[in-house]
Structures are given as structure tokens and as C-alpha cells.
Amino acid sequence: MKLQEHHSKTLLRRAGLPVPPWSVASTPAEARAEAEAYLREGAERVVIKAQVLAGGRGKAGGVKLAATPEEAEAVAGAILGMDIKGITVRRVMVTPGADIVRELYLAAVLDRTAKRIRLMGSAEGGMDIEELAETRPGAIHSLFAHPHLGLLDHQARELAFALDLGQHLPSAVAIAKGIFRAMVDNDADLVEVNPLAVVRTTAADGTVTETLQALDAKVTIDDSALHRHPDLEGMRDLDEEDPVDVEARAQGLSFIRLDGTIGCMVNGAGLAMATMDLVKRAGGQPANFLDIGGGARADRVAAALRLILSDPSVRTVLVNIFGGIARGDEVARGLVEARAEQERNVPMVVRIVGTNAELAAGILAQAGEGIETASSLDDAVARAVRIAGSVATAGAA
Amino acid sequence: MSILVGRDTRLMVQGITGREGAFHAGQMQAYGTNIVCGVTPGKGGLRALDGSVSVFDTCVDAVRETGANTTVIYVPASGAPDAVLEAVGAGIKTVFCITEHIPILDMLKVVAEVDRVGARLIGPNCPGATSPGRAKVGIIPGSIHREGRVGLVSRSGTLTYEVVQAMTDAGIGQSTCVGIGGDPIAGSTFIDILAMFKDDPETEGIVLIGEIGGGAEEAAAAWRAEHLPNVPMVAFIAGRTAPPGRRMGHAGAIISGSGGTAESKIAALEEAGIRVADSPTDIPRLLTEAGIRPS
User: Fold this and answer.
1) Whether B248 and A273 lie within 8 Å, measured CB to CB
2) pLDDT in the model for residue B77
3) Are the C-beta atoms of B210 and B190 separated by less than 8 Å?
4) What is the three-class DSSP state of A68?
5) Is A192 a catalytic residue?
6) Positive or negative, the Cα torsion across A367, A372, A375, A376?
7) SS3 sequence, A337-374?
8) What is the pTM of this model?
9) Does A113 reach chain B within 8 Å, measured CB to CB?
10) Chain A residue with minimal CA distance to B142?
11) Count of CA atoms in the C-beta half-sphere (13 A) of A148
12) Which is nearest to B131 in space by CA: B151, B115, B117?
């Protein structure tokens, strides 16, 4: 689960990181009031940032500066409601502008190959880390935390020196260890601070100080561990989720909507992907990814069919079940029952092999019109693509 | 010969009294696997599988009394990491963890300990392994197999069944089929299993079934080019049509940024001289063209 910037910053602050103050506003008037408060407290400018779970907010125009409350209101008005990569901006962050001396990158990531948490830092923050990894891998410094002992002090110091943060050593060490702790305490699989900035502040008496500050944050949580972090579940942004995704999660189904016309119902994630790939290869377009899981019972199958048919562009449903734990007859019964309940029905191509496939065939044979059965995967895919194509032609005529 | 499981497997089943554990223990025994004990804390002294197998409270007791050398875990996610550690603590060297949805950070610690004591963990979130005609451990349906000389390693479950069935239908038998699981952090990688196949005199060809996410397929391709250049090898990669940034059912199946795409994996495999099938059902033909004869 990806967290919004303001939630990510909450977790970083809990882990002891220095994060400038922020507020969240959902109307231009709220943004104006928040901006006014920061400006009154001495900020020269405020930054208004779109809160959406998409990268490239700056490039899309979702991050803007404002020097007056009026300007903040206008800028927030422009950003709220804006579409960024298909997501409507519903909230903005208001935060004091920082006088940035240097930008760095610091993150904890899951390294699948090393089977360790990797701390990654670069003296070149603010830019796309993947691009940097590709063009100048030498600019990224990495180290692995011990799986049982964690991130050790000397490791954090090594990283700080490598990033030329010797002048800020205690703070840099605390930040590196805080990022690691945020990862572990929250069961995150990514904690990214980009940029981590050296920020200049001038006190009333003219004294200038430089401190490290986390100016942006991105945290993602391991879905398998969410059950032990009920507070994080509350940070889920339901506004940004397709209602279909919410429904799928409630049903325990793995479902992702795509933009094709052939609904797919498959057991097993790998087989579900392979089925989509074959549909595409045969000239069709999959309407979704759907894994109904191992011990799928009739009610789960029914819920899956409802999800698929809730998409009006679906013209046919391709069911591909290789029974192992899943029993073919359960799936067939679920399909027939669910089909009878649907307001809208489309032709189905069903292929069920493996455990109790014969029983499944009997159930499907009695189900009447609209269900074609296929014995091989290739045959099932070809039929589904043919049906989707002919329906399309009929629709166009 | 075969790898991981075979005639000398003496299997312990952790969670044997649960719904999944009881069902699959029965299936494994029916296939001919030598199940020597079960473990369910608090159920010690019971007998499972129609009275044929003793249930123990702890792995230490079970191993001492029965000489179990392999375990399979059907314990729910909340208890599975501890179940792995209990088994290796009792001296078991080969552990299959079927359980899915185990938190990643738990697995990091478990895998480090399993490596430290020199045990081999397959999974979690995996279907297990079958050496046709000898033993099956896990949840792969026994009926799809045929004895033979092609080894198979996969990150998937039902997709593996599809491929194995196609091979069996074409008369191409298997030495051992291993599912290493779909989680981002797993006990064993493709390379670990390829290294075992390399040392198995009865494995003459290899099928690798991968999917989007991570870089394990690319690493396996490079390893193959160096260590197994003359062994016929065929692959399939699922997820050519998967959208980036979305988790495709398996926790590990996600294209992040520019990494982990099907294209990258297919290119790496082909560069290493491995033919990549467009369809799972096309694998038998490619194996035949690579010189594998029906068994």
C-alpha cells in the first residue's frame, strides 16, 4: 500500500526525522488560512503540493510556490481538481518554503537479490534515482543492514561521510537510522526521502544555521503485514482507489482493471498473467487481471463474476481454471449461480481442468445457452477472442 | 536421482491436523511420499492419516522419534516464520513453506537464519516440489506428472501445472518440478535450483517459468550462460501485458520503474541461449527442438 506524502511524513517524524511543519487542505480557502499562518510565523513563501499517489507531481504542475495568502489560495485552486496521471487532486499540502543549500537522496529499500534491507544514498538528490542508477551508478552509495542486528552506527556514519555530510554527522546518522527504523517499525518495503536537504535558516539576530531536513517522503507498506498495523490501514486513501479495487479487496480477490473487452477469471497469479498474455497474442484485449485464489468457493466465484461484469466494455468472459486446491465443480457451480443473478450477461468461454473437471463439465452442460466449454487453453483463448471480435463488429453495425 | 525430494525423503508435515495440512498430507501419502510424522502444538499423541502417522507437539520430538529429514509447512502466516525456524532448529535441512502472505520483513530474518545453519528453504508462497514416481511434497496435483529427465523450476503455481500437463501430454517426463514461490523474499532462487539440476545426472534439460518483477530471471540467464551452456533449456515468462506499478497477485510480481519487465527477462534469457516460448503449451515443441526426446 502506497502512502500519501503527508502520511509518509507522519511516519518519518515518529521515527525522529526532522521534517518541516505541514498542513493538509482540501479547499483553496483552507490552503489560504494555512499559508497565512506559516507566513505570519516568518516563512517567506509556502509550497503547495498536490497529494496524489503518482510520481512526477512537479512536472505535472502539482507543486507551486506562493508568497502571499491570496497567491496560496489561487495556486491551491489551480492544483485542487487537477488531473495528474489520471488521478484527481483532492488535497494539497501546505508547508513553509525552504532555503535549500544542497539536495540529497536517502532511502531504505528491499533488496530482493541480497535478501537484505539496503540503505541507498546519493549526494545528488531531487532527481530520479532510477535514472541516476542507470547513468551514473557510482553516484549511489549502498549498504546492507544486518537482518538481525539492524543498521549499525558505523554503517550510518560511513554513509554520512560518503554523502559528504561530515559537518552534519550526528543529524545524518540519526536520519539514516530513523529511515531504517521507519522501515522496520511499519513493515514498509520502501522508505524514501527525496530530497533530503541541507536547509539554511536565518534567525532574527541574523545568525545563519544549516540543518538537514526531509522535504519529501514516500513510504509503501507491505500488504501482508498490514493486519498488524491497524493505524496504517487508516491511512489508506480510498478516494484514490477505484471502487472496484475496494470491492475486490473486501472479497479477497486479486483484481486489476485494464481497458480491454475480454474479462478473465483465472486461478493463480502466474496463470492469470499468462492467460492475459495469450489473449493479447491472439489479437484480443484483456479487460482485467483476476486471480480467484486457491480454495475458491462458489461465493467467491460469484463475487469475481460481478466485478468483471461491472465493466460495461466487457463483451465476453474467459474462465481458465486449473484445479489443484481449487475444485472444478465448485467453480462451475459458482459460475452458473452467479450468472443467473446478473442483470447483464455476456457469452462465456469456460475451460476447467484438473480436480473434479468431469463434475464441472456436467454442471456447465446443464447450464444452457451462453456458456461454451473448451478443453485446451489455446482453444479457450481463440474462442473468447473470436466472440469479442464478433460482438464488436455487431455493435459497430 | 532427482533433487530435493525423492525415495529417501522422510517427510514431516507441520500443521497436519489443519484443513489444508490434512488434505494435502493425504494426497502426498497417496502419491507414495513417505510421511513419517506430523507436528501440531497441543495435538501431540494423536494419530493422523487414518492412524498411520504420529502427531507430535514439537519438531524436536518428531525428528528424534522418526528421523524426519524434510518438512512441509501448512501453518497460517502468523505462525509460519516460527514454524520454519522450529524445523531448522530441530535439524531439518530441507524445508518447504507453502504458506502465503507472510510479512516480508519476517522472511528476511528467517531466510538469514536458515542460511546461517546451512538448511535449504523452498518458498514461502510456493506449491512445493514433485519428483515423479518417487515423492511429492506440497500441493502440486500428482496426476499431471510423468517420470522423465527434464527438470522444471517456477515462480508460479497453477501456471506450472499447465506447463507440466503440456509436457506430460507430449510424452516429455520430468525429473523434479520445483515451485520456488511468488514472494519477493524467498528461501531459494532460480540459481539455487539450477545448481542442483546441474549436479543431477538424470536431469538432461531444464524448463524455467518466470514472471515480471525483480531480476531473478536475468540473474538465472547469466548463470546459465556460464555454468550450463550445453544443457537444453526453455523458458516462459508471464506478464507481457501486465501494467507497470501494479502488483499482479503475487507479492513479487510488480514492474517497478524500468525494472522487472517481461521484455527485459525475455531478452536476457534469449541472449543466454535459452528459447522463450510464446505460450505455455508451446514448451514441449521447443524442448523437442532443443533435443529432448519423449521419455
Assistant:
1) yes
2) 95
3) yes
4) coil
5) yes
6) negative
7) HHHHHCCCCCCEEEEEEECCHHHHHHHHHCCCCCEEEC
8) 0.93
9) yes
10) A324
11) 7
12) B151
Catalytic annotation present for B250? yes
d(CA B149, CA B228): 16
> Could you report the per-residue pLDDT of A363-383, keeping only the tens digit for each?
988 887 788 999 899 999 999
Closest-CA distance of chain A to residue B265, Å: 15
Q: What pLDDT is recorded for position A296?
A: 64
C-alpha cell at A125: 538528490
User: Which helix (H) or strand (E) element contains residue A97?
Assistant: none
Give ∠ CA A258-A259-A262 in degrees, rounded to 5: 85
Q: How far apart are CA B280 and CA B233, in angstroms?
A: 14
Cell of B288: 523437442
A294 burial type by CB count under 10 A (0-12 exposed, 13-18 middle, 19+ buried): middle
Say yes or no to pLDDT of A343 above 60: yes
Q: What is the DSSP track for B113-147? A: HHHHTT-EEE-SS--EEEETTTEEEES--GGG--E
Distance between CA atoms of residues B171 and B130, nearest Å:
17
CA-based nearest distance A97→chain B, Å? 29
pLDDT at A297 over 80: no
Question: What interface predicted TM-score (ipTM) does this complex get?
Answer: 0.92
Residue A133: predicted pLDDT: 81
Q: Which residues of B touch A224 (CB under 8 A)?
A: 77, 101-104, 251
Please count the other Cβ atoms lying within 10 Å of the Cβ belonging to residue A37.
Answer: 16
The band of A391, judged by pLDDT with boundaries at 50, 70 and 90, is: low
pLDDT of residue A341: 82
The whole-angstrom separation of Cα B228 and Cα A282 is 34
Residues of B in contact with A110 (CB under 8 A): 104, 184-185
Q: Per-residue b/e over A181-196, b at no fewer than 16 CB within 10 Å?
A: bbbbebbbbbbbbbbb
Give the up-direction half-sphere exposure of residue A240: CA atoms within 13 A in the CB hemisphere.
21
Three-state DSSP state, A186:
coil
Cβ contact A115–B155 (<8 Å): no
Low-confidence ranges of chain B (pLDDT < 70): 1, 257-258
% pLDDT > 90, chain B: 91
pLDDT category, A324, cuts 50, 70, 90? confident
